[in-house]
Design goal:
- By secondary structure, the chain is of the alpha/beta class.
- It has 4 domains: 13-117, Rossmann fold; 121-182; 199-363, Rossmann fold, CATH 3.40.50; 368-428, Alpha-Beta Plaits, CATH 3.30.70.
- It is 39% helix and 21% strand.
- The protein contains 13 helices and 14 strands.
- It has helices spanning 30-39, 63-76, 89-99, 106-117, 121-135, 162-197, 213-221, 264-269, 271-278, 294-307, 353-363, 380-388, 411-421; strands at residues 13-21, 43-52, 80-83, 102-104, 202-207, 238-244, 248-254, 282-288, 315-320, 331-334, 340-344, 368-375, 392-397, 403-410.
- The strands form 3 sheets. Strands 6-7-5-8-9-11-10 form a 7-stranded mixed β-sheet, sandwiched between helices. The chain has a 4-stranded parallel β-sheet with strand order 2-1-3-4, sandwiched between helices. It has a 3-stranded antiparallel β-sheet with strand order 12-14-13.
- The N and C termini lie far apart (67 Å).
Amino acid sequence: MSLFFERPDFGERAVLVHLKLNSESEPEDPREFEELVLSAGGDPVEFITGSRTAPHAKLFVGTGKLDEIAAAVNSSNAELVIFNHNLSPSQERNIEAELKCRVLDRTGLILDIFAQRARTHEGKLQVELAQLQHLSTRLIRGWTHLERQKGGIGLRGPGETQLESDRRMVRDRIKAIQARLLKVRKQRAQGRRARVRAEVPAVSLVGYTNAGKSTLFNTLTQSDVFVADQLFATLDPTMRKLDIPEQGEVIFADTVGFISHLPHRLVDAFRATLEEAANATLLLHVVDAAAEDRAINIKRVEEVLKEIDAHKLPTLMVYNKVDLLDDATVRIDRNAEGLPVAVWLSALNNEGLDLLQKAVAERLPGQFVHQTLSLRPNHGALRASLYSHKAVLNEQVDENGLIHLEVKLPEVDFLRMLKGSGLKPEDLLAV
């Protein structure tokens, strides 16, 4: 039985509330708030703004502002009031009692979007866990029977209140989901260990939501990950293998988009997914180059990376959507040592992806074998493997029947091929 919040199949009429608080060091973005509501399928009918020195302890907003919200709800027949702030359970209950309609805070809104986007079994478990943790502090709301004792045949005696029973059920469900997610984390860890043993580098795409990560991922790896111009279009991680020139096989992972002040319970619930980023060999930080708040979005992503202990990983900036800029060109930016630090491209128009692969190959660790090997006629399997990896630059056969191959490929791939052929480097008469 799923305990997801029930959602209607149509857009709910919603009044949006955003306050500028002097006590907030980094205020929420009202434009992003409206995008979140639209992504959730809401129909914003009123947008009420205001300012306060600090939130009201009981109602978050002042009584005058609450009257303004109530008037907007009545005039527009709104079914829902959404705050661009995190409300305490008591504030949420008090506001609902005054407005006589449902109230949702920023965390509840993001959870609802995640519930819609989750497609895999793991993703649904993670969303349900976050929802239940959020719900567990709000169980009193809207229940009239909670303080009555259970009764009836076979149920008489000390019993327990319905509220205690509901809380126990939620706690049991949370424990069950956490146990299943722990199993998922162990399976992911085994997969990562296998990749490490095979020395296949992992590259994770991270970035602010709607930066174009999935479009870039699809174009690079010829995949069909869901793409849409909306927040949190991608929720479940997807991994694909790609053969990169000058490097060899690389695992690419598309991850969930980040957002400002991502709720902590979401970071905790999605830790299994975010670990793909935290354990990557290289991060591709994808940025919407045309976004007005580009610098702020970069900072917000860096804050989430710090939360999951991924901020010290090697990172290559990828400025996407250059087709929307007048003065940007497809290029690689390098630091003083000549190391690639940023790539400017357009994933939608398939421009600059060759530069990205070149930059990724340069940033990934690993030694290359570039030399001429002399193979005997009975080394045909190795020759075939070298050709299948597109590692042969030139081939000549001498009068003694020796095959001289000029090869260039990652050392790890070369050693793996030798082992598969039962050979050692000295067996190949390298010159």
